[in-house]
Each structure stands twice: as C-alpha cells, then as structure tokens.
Design brief:
Layout lengths: L14 E3 H19 L1 E6 L2 E7 L1 H36 L4 H10 L3 E2 L2 E2 L6
Parallel strand pairs: 1-2
Antiparallel strand pairs: 2-3, 4-5
C-alpha cells in the first residue's frame, strides 16, 4: 500500500518568531509542535527553519522510502523487458527472423511498405 504524504506549503505552516523561541524556550516550541506537528521559525518575518515532530519526520521518511521502492520496481520492470527483447535479438535465428520480417509484405499506417523492387 502506497503511503500518501501531503506536505503543506511553507507559507501555510504555523509560524513563530525566533524571539519567541528565545523567550518561551524549548518547552514553548515543543508545545507549538505538539499542537501542529511542525512550526516555521522566522527571523524578521522570513522563514529560517522548520521544526518537525518526530512523527512528522518519520512520515516523510516512510513516504520517501515508498516512492523510492515504486521507482525501483518500475525500473526493474523496464530492465526485465529490455533484457527479454535483447535476448530475442541475440538468439541464433535472429538474423533469419529479421530478414524474413523485412522481406515479407507489411503495411505501415495503411500504406504498403515499399520493397527492394520499388
């Protein structure tokens, strides 16, 4: 089952100025994180850092692992299909099969393929 992670844009996250972090201390910051799971620390109204709860961080890591696994699976499928096609081209009779295919009548987009005589 794929893990779906929705990350809010930075501007939508709860904010706290760096001065509040100094004033309220770590416990105050952790209370804010406990309520929202994350908080943006600002300096002169500009984002400086995002502090995440361990749970939020874990969700991000699991989503990244899941995405990597899906990508690896897709790549493995492509690699297997390529290897199968390559193996058919390396078969002993590949030359004869290709020659027979090229010499036989074929239609392309509704038009007959021109042979050596045309």
């Amino acid at each position: 089952m794929a893990l779906t992670l929705k990350l809010d844009p930075l501007e939508n996250l709860p904010r706290t100025p760096a001065s509040d972090v100094k004033k309220l201390g770590w416990r105050g910051v952790m209370r804010a994180i406990g309520r929202k799971g994350k908080v943006v620390v600002t300096n002169h109204s500009e984002p400086e850092a995002v502090i995440l709860s361990a749970e939020e961080y874990g969700l991000i890591l699991r989503a990244l692992d899941d995405a990597g696994a899906r990508q690896a699976s897709a790549l493995d499928t492509l690699r297997r299909r390529f290897d199968e096609r390559l193996a058919s081209l390396q078969a002993d009779d590949a030359n004869e099969r290709l020659r027979a295919l090229m010499q036989g009548p074929t239609t392309l987009a509704g038009k007959v393929k021109a042979g050596e005589s045309h």
